[in-house]
Design brief:
235 residues; alpha+beta; nine-stranded mixed beta sheet; 18% helix
């Protein structure tokens, strides 16, 4: 692997008051927290550089079980045997697999736990997370720009959109880390229920070579994986 690696652009945000513009800022930040950018900085990954056997899901050391689904449960749902085929790369395998719980601290003193999972293959990385925020996907779409595309996954309303990853350049000799624009991530926000009553799942894919991901691959993954996540309801 080269010294340049893709990493997650996870940000800490503060919860605003419920004004229209402030909610917009909070929702935009929530999207970033949901993991639209790239690889996780946190969590424990199982390296399989010389072993052809697929990686198994590992929980981070500081994982905090969340309800009704945990990061490890999301990882188990995502790390399926046919994931490489769904992505269009059937000869590859999961090199890294992780599930963890990220914690957000809000200005009003409340804390939010977000379960998330990530699988890395040679070509693609895939991330799955879930949010219990009382925000419909249709409302989220209004803050994601004009290029949002409406979709339906298993009878649940969904939106498809893009975000740019962040690249970290590690200078091992000088001990410096530089940041810059990375490739494109394609993501789906999928409502937790068919009526879009609030809360959503998020599935994101990006490529290690910075080529724009295949939307059909993303849709195949979402349609196959989400019905296996604990708590999913049929549309």
């Amino acid at each position: 692997m080269s010294e340049q690696q893709m990493v997650d652009a996870t940000k800490s945000v503060e919860r605003p008051e419920k004004g229209v513009n402030e909610w917009g800022q909070a929702l935009s930040a929530l999207v970033v927290v949901g993991g639209l950018a790239a690889l996780l900085l946190s969590g424990t990954f199982q390296q399989k550089s010389s072993d052809p056997e697929p990686a198994v899901c590992e929980a981070s050391d500081d994982a905090r079980p969340s309800k009704p689904v945990s990061g490890v449960q999301l990882c188990t749902a995502l790390n399926r045997a046919d994931l490489p085929t769904l992505l269009g790369t059937p000869t590859e395998y999961a090199m890294n697999a992780s599930g963890n719980e990220s914690m957000s601290n809000w200005a009003d003193g409340t804390k939010t736990v977000t379960p998330e999972a990530e699988i890395q293959l040679a070509t693609y990385s895939v991330k799955l997370s879930t949010s219990d925020e009382d925000i419909p996907v249709a409302e989220m779409a209004g803050f994601l720009g004009s290029r949002v595309e409406n979709r339906s996954i298993g009878g649940h309303p969904a939106v498809l959109y893009s975000d740019r990853t962040i690249a970290l350049n590690f200078n091992l000799g000088g001990g410096k880390v530089d940041t810059g624009p990375g490739g494109i991530a394609r993501s789906l926000l999928v409502a937790k229920d068919a009526k879009d009553g609030g809360g959503f799942y998020e599935v994101s894919i990006w490529r290690q070579d910075d080529v724009v991901p295949d939307d059909l691959a993303l849709l195949r993954v979402a349609e196959a994986v989400l019905p296996t996540v604990p708590g999913w309801t049929a549309g």
